[in-house]
From TrEMBL:
The lineage of its organism: Bacteria, Pseudomonadati, Nitrospirota, Nitrospiria, Nitrospirales. Its cofactor is Mg(2+). Belongs to the 5-formyltetrahydrofolate cyclo-ligase family. It comes from the Bacteria. Keywords: ATP-binding, Ligase, Magnesium, Metal-binding, Nucleotide-binding. This is 5-formyltetrahydrofolate cyclo-ligase. Gene3D superfamilies: NagB/RpiA/CoA transferase-like. ATP binds at K18, K19, T20, L21, R22. It catalyses: (6S)-5-formyl-5,6,7,8-tetrahydrofolate + ATP = (6R)-5,10-methenyltetrahydrofolate + ADP + phosphate. It is an enzyme of class 6 (ligase). InterPro entries: FTHF_cligase (IPR002698), FTHF_cligase-like_sf (IPR024185), NagB/RpiA_transferase-like (IPR037171). GO terms for biological process: folic acid-containing compound biosynthetic process; tetrahydrofolate interconversion. It comes from Leptospirillum ferrodiazotrophum.
Length: 211
């Protein structure tokens, strides 16, 4: 008797689809020429800042500083240093957070500014060297990495589920923004019940609302 309709079979099929797409999209991203990688990263940072302004107009500044989670790039990921630098140098009151895995098996959000030292974490990704942390419930905007995205908000990560678990935390209601190159957009990302969709996507071509 075939078990093609069983939950276990469906999970196995989803895992295979994700693995195949990861391999293809990482290869595509790795092949991006260095000058284009740099230029597209700068352009994406400019569009990301435009989205921040759109999501939180200046008249709201008096209420409380905007809390934004970003990420430090790994490998051929889009370079987030231009965005992080612009957020820190802006005139808007803002609290910037970066993810840390060094002291936990789950993501802890650590505050970061130019005076905060950075040390490599478990995957060699730099993380803030501080014991301070901020709950996901206080984040207004999450800028999130990924290997592939689709226009409905589907996101394909690296398969560890770290960011999906972070976004599933209680009262984590901040706006979810996928940040990537336009070459990482696909027709459909295979997703399961635990995958958290994006509200917006930002690439070097601009920003768009998902759905």
């Amino acid at each position: 008797m075939s078990d093609s309709g069983s939950p276990h079979s469906a999970e196995a099929t989803l895992a295979r689809e994700k693995k195949t797409l990861r391999k293809a999209l990482v290869a595509r991203r790795d092949a991006l020429a260095k000058d284009l990688w740099k230029r597209h990263s700068l352009e994406a940072a400019r569009h990301a800042l435009s989205l921040v302004e759109t999501l939180s107009p200046r008249e709201k500044e008096a209420a409380a500083p905007l809390t934004v989670t970003a990420f430090l790039s790994f490998g051929s990921e889009i370079d987030t240093r231009p965005l992080i630098g612009s957020l820190l140098d802006g005139t808007r009151p803002l609290r910037l957070l970066l993810p840390s895995l060094r002291q936990s098996k789950t993501i802890i959000l650590r505050p970061y500014d130019r005076e905060t030292p950075l040390l490599p974490g478990p995957f060699g990704i730099l993380e803030p060297e501080t014991t301070r942390s901020v709950p996901a419930s206080e984040v207004d905007i999450f800028f999130l990495p990924g290997i592939a995205f689709d226009r409905e908000g589907g996101r394909l990560g690296y398969g560890k589920g770290y960011f999906d678990r972070l976004l599933a935390e209680k009262n984590a209601r901040g706006t979810r923004v996928g940040l990537a190159f336009s070459d990482q957009l696909v027709e459909r990302v295979p997703t399961g019940p635990h995958d958290r969709p994006m509200h917006y996507l930002v690439t070097e071509e601009g920003w768009m609302r998902c759905g």
